[in-house]
Amino acid sequence: MRILIKNGRVIDPQNGMDAINDVFIIAGKIVAIGAEPDCFQANHVINAKGLVVCPGLVDLSVRLREPGLEYKATLESEMRAAVAGGITSLACPPDTDPPLDEPGLVEMLKHRAKSLNQAHVYPIGALTQGLKGERLTEMAELYDAGCVAFSQSDKLLLDTRVMMRAMQYASTFGFSVWLRPEDVSLANSGVAHDGEVATRLGLPAIPVCAETIALSNIVLIARETGAKVHLCRVSSAEGVAMLRAARQQGLPITCDVAANYIHLTEMDINFFDSNCHLVPPLRGLSDRDALRAGLMDGTIDAVCSDHAPVDEDAKLLPFGESEAGATGLELLLSLILKWAEEMKIPLIVALSKITSGPARILGVKAGHLSLGTAADLCIFDPDQYWKVEAKTLVSQGKNTPFLGMELQGRVKYTLADGIIVYED
Amino acid sequence: MNNNPQLNKNGELQHLLTTEGLPASILLNILDTAESFVGVTARDIKKVPLLRGKSIFNLFFEPSTRTRTTFEIAAKRLSADVVNLNIAASSQSKGETLLDTVNNLSAMHADMFVVRHSQSGAAHLIARHVRPEIHVINAGDGRHAHPTQALLDMFTIRRYKRNFRNLRVAIVGDILHSRVARSQIHALTTLGVPEVRIIAPKTLLPAKVERLGVHVYHDMAQGLKDVDVLLMLRLQNERMLGACLPSSEEYFKHYGLTQEKLALAKQDSIVLHPGPMNRGIEIDSAVADGKQSVILPQVTFGIAVRMAVMTILAGN
User: Fold this and answer.
1) Would you say residue A47 lies in a domain?
2) Where are the beta strands (DSSP E) in A163-292?
3) Is residue A390 domain-resident?
4) pLDDT tens across A324-381, in order?
5) Which of A202, A271, A321 is the closest to B179 by Cβ?
6) Which entry of A306, A313, A381, A424 is annotated as an active-site residue?
7) Which of A134, B54, B84, B213 has the highest CB neighbour count under 10 A?
8) Residue A195's closest chain B neighbor by CA?
9) Is the confidence at residue B45, as pLDDT, over 80?
10) Is residue A396 part of a domain?
């Protein structure tokens, strides 16, 4: 299959390209960008005039809800949603039912995903058995089955000794440990940031020190063990500052932030909008601004969707009883573009946060348009507006704080391994 | 920013969910209307036909006898039909969702729901989903709001002190967990009380509480100096469990209202309490039963204020 993508603005952050160029694909691989190869006869031409052609997006946290949670969403629906959002590589956390702590489950998930021929799925394995935080999983077996890293997802570790042993063990094999920094006791049953909004609304609150104390533990243990650590969903200004200091000391720590947090704050909860019930909680304005600054100066390497489809019944409850999480696959690109537009950030820099940045953290060959690599591309119209509505969202999760809003940036085509897996 | 969910497009009260965000004119209208009802409850024939034919459903997801009873009395004095639903015992335990319960009841032609729930925001959720003709009164949602309690407290203050604008008011106790305190703070500041003080140990104060327009005191002696109105809050037993307080004895010593502490306030100061009182924990009997206590009148005024709220809502 020979595909020609004509006249698009090709933006490839890793290779520093931002220019109008043609892209040539043969048998699922990018063979040339710019000059036409000899004797190239296209089977299919995509007219990308006025569109941006960039690497297929890489999303570090996507809940596919399989196995076990199919009433919320299925692999089919969420994989379709991913490519509708321009995403061609995604990592899924281990908090399925049962959790991804057995090689058989991981193999089954990978096999199921592969058979759908859409985005590449990189499972994150459970760090402890059953995610219970007591016994280690067979990380080497899980790695062989296809896990690219290990995490506890939202089942935070209570025991610092287990955390240390887990990181030592992972580090024995050079495996990455992904942890969400939040202290269980301090987070308690909190559902909102410990600030003015929670005070007014009478919501049980989570102080910032729940994040910074856990972050501090993780950083210190990482230093002790030499483990490669990735921090998931930093949310506070103080957290970013601690991370910056740790990086300056040369520690191999990376970090991501979820797209909602570079835009929203506790104020968006308004009159108890349960679509804003998120984990970690939406914090204050200064926290949001610090996350933006952290992205700009490279302290934060990547932005993910933290996609969590939640069924309607679980959101139509009083705030504190509602299930936390937001659908995000189809908003990731638009939210990055919105951030770039508001902060006057060059598109090539903004796109690096959802392509080359996350790919580096995952340690996979993705997120760039180098010659000879798999043709995973996202082609989007940066100017087209679209309305976030339940009926237009492909994901089974319609739960987003941006419901009813118009966002800019529409995916027109997504290619995975040189096949058009989505067309608007 | 959303429109105020309590007001209809004419700016009239559609639901009473919280005292926050309501203009002074609306609060004063409720107080003025309540004045006319105080006389009714004192008569022999205690009824007026204002809400005849209307159905008022008390949806209490959290058990309560006193609040539910006062709402029931208020509704009956207006000649409305009252249905009491103790939800904890019924469909909720069968797994029916909150909104399904509400929808089923709406289909039985309710005109008004009086809702009490253990979760903050429950009344807002219900108000957002009922048919446009139904009015929702929040009888207490989690820690968030208890607007009718705050309104009857304001009514009581006005009865004894006349003018809000030259008062010093102190709220004492567990502000962190109190829906009554939050509603009182908003009402007091809206009505123009120049100095609202809160007195509590640090463990019982919510974050950034000064932003609500209050002065924070940890020392009760300092906080009560020259105060005109004392609003005492109930201390719940669970506070000792959550590591907020060591014991009720130590709490009483530093934050309980005794005659000695009351003497630091103005001589003609009044003492209020939403009830039920924990004698010897937040207030001692001598004060509760003393001449400065207006706790019993609060109960009487509570019926008039709730009659006023129902009448105003039904008329909009």
Assistant:
1) no
2) 176-179, 192-193, 205-206, 228-231, 253-258
3) no
4) 999 999 999 999 999 999 999 999 999 999 999 999 999 999 999 999 999 999 999 9
5) A202
6) A306
7) B54
8) B207
9) no
10) no
A195 touches chain B (CB under 8 A): yes
Residue-number span of the structural domain to which A184 is assigned: 56-362
Q: Helix or strand or coil: residue B215?
A: strand
Distances in Å between the Cα of A63 and the Cα atoms of A115, A330, A395 are 18, 13, 11
Closest partner residue to B125 among A201, A205, A272, by Cβ? A272
Q: What is the pLDDT of residues B246-304, one digit of tens each?
A: 999 999 999 999 999 999 999 999 999 998 999 999 999 999 999 999 999 999 999 99
The answer to whether A40 faces chain B, any CB pair under 8 Å, is no
d(Cα A107, Cα A123) in Å, to the nearest integer?
9
Overall domain count for chain A: 1
Contacts of A370 (CB under 8 A, 6+ apart): A12, A14, A15, A30
Same fold, B24-146+300-315 and B147-293: yes
Residue with tokens 């109008």: A20
Q: What is the nearest CA distance from B232 to chain A, expressed in angstroms?
A: 19
ipTM: 0.94
Beta-carbon contacts of residue B101 (< 8 Å; ≥ 6 apart): B59, B87, B91, B92
Contacts of B39 (CB under 8 A, 6+ apart): none
Fold of B147-293: Rossmann fold (3.40.50)
Locate the domains of chain B by residue range.
24-146+300-315, 147-293
Residue B296 at interface with chain A, using a CB cutoff of 8 Å: no
Query: Residue A392: is it exposed, middle or buried by C-beta count within 10 angstroms (0-12/13-18/19+)?
Result: exposed
**Residue pointed to by tokens 């696959």:** A329
| B52 given a catalytic annotation | no
B202 is catalytic: no
A195, A199, A321: residue with CB nearest B119: A321
> If you measure CA to CA, which chain A residue comes closest to B17?
A271
Q: Which residues of B touch A322 (CB under 8 A)?
A: none
Give the chain A residue nearest B19 (alpha carbons): A200
Q: Which of B18, B19, B67, B156 is catalytic?
A: B67
Interface probe, candidates B19, B115, B120, chain A, greatest A C-beta count within 10 A: B120
Whether A345 is in a domain gets the answer yes
pLDDT given at position A343: 95
Q: Supply the DSSP string of B157-175, one letter for each residue.
A: HHHHH--GGG-EEEEES--
Q: Is B120 in contact with A201 (Cβ distance < 8 A)?
A: yes
CATH code at B24-146+300-315: 3.40.50.1370
pLDDT in tens, A46-98: 999 999 999 999 999 999 988 888 777 889 999 999 999 999 999 999 999 99
State the DSSP H helix or E strand holding residue B189, giving kind and residue range, or none if neither: helix B179-190
Task: Give B315's DSSP letter.
Answer: H
3-state secondary structure (DSSP) of residue B197: strand
Q: How far is B206 from chain A (nearest CA, A)?
A: 6
Which CATH number fits the domain that encloses residue A187? 3.20.20.140
B208 and A196 within 8 Å at the Cβ level: the answer is: yes
Q: What values do phi and psi take at A46, rounded to 5?
A: -105, 125
